[in-house]
Amino acid sequence: MRRADFARVAITALATVITLGAAPASARPAEPTVAWAACADQADVQCGSVTVPIDWSRPGGATLDIALARRPAGDPTARIGTLVINPGGPGGSGVAQVKGGIADHLPAEVRRRFDLVGFDPRGVADSSQMKCLPSGLTAAHYLPTTSAQFDQLRAGNKAASESCHEVSGPLAGFLDNLSVVRDIDAIRAAVGDRKLTFYGISYGSMMGQQYAQMFPGRVRALVLDSNMDHSRATTWDFLRSETVGAQQAFDRFVEWCATNDECALHGQDVRKVVAGLHTRAEAGELGETDPLTLLDEIQSMFAGPYWPELADRLTELTAMKPTQTAEPTRTGKPTQAGKAQAGKAQAGKAAEEAEPIEDIGGIFCSDWRLPVRDVAEVKALRTRLARVAPDMKLNTQAWVSVLGCVGHTAEVRNPQAPLKWTGVPPVLLLNSRYDAATPHEWARNVARQTGATLLTYEGAGHGVYSLGSPCTREATERYLISVRTPRPGSTCPAI
């Protein structure tokens, strides 16, 4: 689960997978095709789409178009096939990623031998972007301390969820990852590949994981970078594992500050600085920077990791007078709490004025059953989380995702369940040792469940391949071309 710059039973979920994967041939729609043409806004990239059912159990029903973008292989004579790409989120645009020059960051040999195809998952960007009425909630609503505040949070989420169905129609009920997996298989068929080669980051890793479970015989190679663990059965285990990851990433930042004079807080007690800022945020002395927004600003910078920028921001906040208003973070990346606030401004707009929303609404809430019953449970969770993460208190990405589903009305079509792969070829997992968004604990558990090979980057950050390690890049290139994984337990040094 990546910040867009970020929250059943096993038998039931497995039965759902089996049912969806075993549809009779007579019920399946005809194999789709793609009519590629130069993108209107970028002539050096080809655009197209593939038409899929909104409800895969009703292939003859309503449909939507999944938007695609392609950079053809540099050497058609050496072409292996198509590398399908998704950047995660949830809510990330694969079309934008391919248009944005991902080819420049992939090894030359991969660019030479694969078409690069990115897609916008259903309900995202050019694939029928979901639109909903704003809920009126702000970041502060995600830390309720009274029953009335909790009821307000639940009512706001419920109203926003219902409006998604009213404004965007039946697609709002079919945003789950299992439907996306079926869409990916349609993309595979449409580009003419007998088997799928896929690179998925963060929430995209869950797409690859569940694709392998649903279509094991159609897998060629999967690179799953910064792994989700969809087997976290309880709200506590989900929040605990994410919060431990945030604390570990912060600990690394503290170590870096202690040893690097590039840190604006070098020589200071960084933990004490953050504790003081948290106290001031609780007292309302940091202007618009409330406690959740403060923690989210900090944790959003773990992804890069953007340690110098984080140190500068903490220095800036420390110097603020109580009457000043905090300015937005300088990373240029919207934070999770900030997105929640910006995407849910004033209630009461007409349906035609509804604004697009991303990630933590219908997509996440369709894939996870993580109940929080009342304000007493909120308080208990916060107390327990603060014990495992005395500096970070909680993982803001996970917390806002979970609390964002309180009162949500969409069906949880893809509840958590352990992965059970059979007949899947070698799969490569990548994960940082210190990742606040997808902790290493999650990747280890995915490897244990599936038998996939985990390559650990012994540094910090989210999205291993983008961190620039020659070791991880070489292993990924070798695997994509030859489907040869590193030895189990392999690591790459931090850079």
UniProtKB/TrEMBL annotation:
SUPFAM superfamilies: alpha/beta-Hydrolases. Residues 322-334 have a biased composition (Polar residues). Keywords: Hydrolase, Signal. Residues 82-465 form the AB hydrolase-1 domain. Residues 322-345 are annotated as: Disordered. InterPro entries: AB_hydrolase_1, AB_hydrolase_fold, Serine_prot/Carboxylest_S33. Residues 1-27 form the signal peptide. Residues 336-345 have a biased composition (Low complexity). Belongs to the peptidase S33 family. PANTHER family: 2-SUCCINYL-6-HYDROXY-2,4-CYCLOHEXADIENE-1-CARBOXYLATE SYNTHASE, TRIPEPTIDYL AMINOPEPTIDASE. This is Peptidase. It comes from Actinoplanes couchii.
